Amino acid sequence: MTRPGIGVVGRRLVQFLLDELLVFLPMLLLAIAVVWLFHPHGPGLLTFLEVVLYTMLVLDFVGLLFVTVWWPHRHGGQTPAMRWLRLRVRTLDGGHPSLGAFLVRELLMVVDGFAWGLAGTVVMLVSRRRQRFGDIVARTVVERVPRSADEPAFPRPDGDFGAVPGPQLAFDGADVGLDRGQRNHE
Asked: pLDDT tens-digit profile of 161-170?
């Protein structure tokens, strides 16, 4: 495996910020809605701010687990921001990481996020495969996804969205086929 360039570290930092923003904005709106509906009747502003803070912490934790653990496990090793920036998580042997590997990566963000992410950034810059501590422990690597010449600009209904799992038509296979002239008449 060749050593990735430093550019992948910049992409990963932008990806992290985009994923955080993707979780933070809906979480903030939901926290405001929850507080609005269940506003505590107490001493005033301080209690209100405490409820907002605790609500946001819980929603942030759940949202981050969804975006950084469950979503990439179900979508080819990519968070939404990784897909936009053409990055994906793979195991060291090139396979798809397990749900546990994604969970380990996220739990160790506590270490990588130390000093506002400086610890993880330094580890990525000095590691051979540009891995942060969570990647090293989970035995994963973040790689750039090469652009394909036949890749469409917009996603196709190819099973990623669950619309059409393959090239199928609503006719009987004997009538119309996509098998390049090899019809199977029974």
From this structure: 444 444 444 4
Full-prediction pTM beyond 0.85?
no
Q: Check: CB of residue 135 under 8 Å from CB of residue 142.
A: yes
Encode pLDDT of 107-130 as tens digits. Answer: 999 999 889 889 999 999 999 999
Backbone angles phi, psi at 90, to 5 degrees: -135, 160
Residue 49 structure tokens: 């701010």
Query: Does residue 78 fall inside a structural domain?
Result: yes
Domain count, the chain: 1
Residue 99 backbone dihedrals phi, psi, to 5 degrees: -60, -35
Q: How many CB atoms lie within 10 A of CB 179?
A: 9
Q: What domain range is 113 assigned to?
A: 7-144
169 within domain boundaries: no
In angstroms, rounded to a whole number, what is the distance separating the alpha carbons of residues 115 and 44? Answer: 34
Q: Do you know the residue count of the chain?
A: 186
In a domain, 77, yes or no: yes
